[in-house]
Every structure is written in C-alpha cells, then in structure tokens.
Design goal:
about 200 residues; mainly alpha; two-stranded antiparallel sheet; about 5% strand
C-alpha cells in the first residue's frame, strides 16, 4: 500500500515535522552590495542623486611670482531615480471543511514577508546586473574566449576594482607572523587552566 502526504487526512498532515514541510526560502545576498537610500516623506516619487566629478591633478608648482594657476571646471552629474511601488496580496475565505488548528493568518503573513524579501532581492539583482561590467577571462590555456580563470585574470579584475576605488565587502585580514604570540597565549591559558584545576 502506497501512502503519500496528499492522501493523508488534514489532521495527520499537520503532525508532520515542520522542517520537512517548511517552505523553501532563498538566501538573500544581493542587498549586501546595495546602498539603501530613504526618500523623505512628501517629496514625490523622484529622488535626485548628485555627484561632482573629480578634479585634475595639479603637479606643476607655482613660479616665484605666485601667479594664479589655470582654473578647472567643476562638473556635477545628476541621476534621477524614480520610486516604484510593488505589491501583492492573499485572498482568504472563512469557510473550512474541518476544524483546522493551523494558524492560517500567521502562515499567510510569513509567506507574504518571504515573498517581499525575495522580490526585493530579485529586483536588486536585476539592478546590479544592468550596471555591472563584464571582464572575460583570457589567461587560460584552453583556447576558448573566455578561457578558464587563472590568477592573471583575477589580478586584472582586482586592478580594475582598485583603479575605480571599489570598496571591500569583507574586513581586511592583515598578514602578520604571530606564531610565537599564539603559542605564548596558549601557554598562559594552559597555566590558568592548571591553576583552576588545582
């Protein structure tokens, strides 16, 4: 006799392991690389972001008469962002076939929250994809374009990011020779443990 979850009565289905029947949830990772901006109340749906271009280097010293150097133009770039509203909802009825102890409204609220965050993550992914640069790997030996990734390709990407003032997404781990220091700390910890044991 074959028994499936769908063929069991609703009372029995509710007693299954919650983890087994839980709704799969995505890992939300794209918001890690975004900069959230809050639009103040009553300001409409357009958010103007502005930045000033960097100035040229001035590597020639002034002469002895201290005459004014040549001036530079200060340029500003404006980017208008339009706020969009996304929404969904659930339709629930009050009619049920049996007495059901399942917290339907709590489950619906949880699914709506999950749907909100996954939609937000997908929109952020699409936004990042539309503005991302593509660098093909060319340092490999298989003859394809792009080739397999090599350390020279990673170095090229690192150089591009560094030259464009990219920010690090993790903390920098400084290199240091701390083998002796770790041993000294471990030894002092063992002494403390011996004292506690005594």
């Amino acid at each position: 006799m074959t028994v499936s979850i769908a063929s069991l009565p609703p009372q029995i289905q509710q007693r299954y392991n919650a983890k087994l029947l839980s709704t799969p949830e995505h890992n939300l990772i794209h918001q890690l690389f975004a900069t959230p901006v809050e639009l103040p109340d009553n300001n409409g749906f357009i958010d103007r972001q502005s930045r000033y271009d960097r100035l040229d280097l001035f590597e020639v010293p002034l002469d002895d008469s201290q005459n004014n150097p040549p001036p530079q133009q200060l340029n500003r770039v404006d980017v208008d962002c339009r706020v969009r509203v996304y929404a969904t909802y659930i339709v629930l009825t009050r009619q049920v076939t049996i007495t059901n102890e399942d917290p339907v409204l709590n489950s619906a609220a949880a699914r709506l929250g999950q749907s909100l965050r996954e939609t937000q993550d997908a929109l952020q992914r699409d936004n990042l994809e539309s503005s991302a640069s593509i660098i093909n790997c060319v340092g490999g030996s298989n003859g394809d374009i792009p080739t397999e990734m090599t350390i020279s390709d990673v170095d090229d990407v690192f150089t591009v990011l560094q030259n464009n003032s990219a920010e690090y997404i993790t903390n920098i781990v400084e290199a240091d020779l701390k083998f002796g220091k770790v041993c000294a700390e471990l030894k002092s910890s063992l002494i403390d443990l011996e004292c506690l044991a005594a």
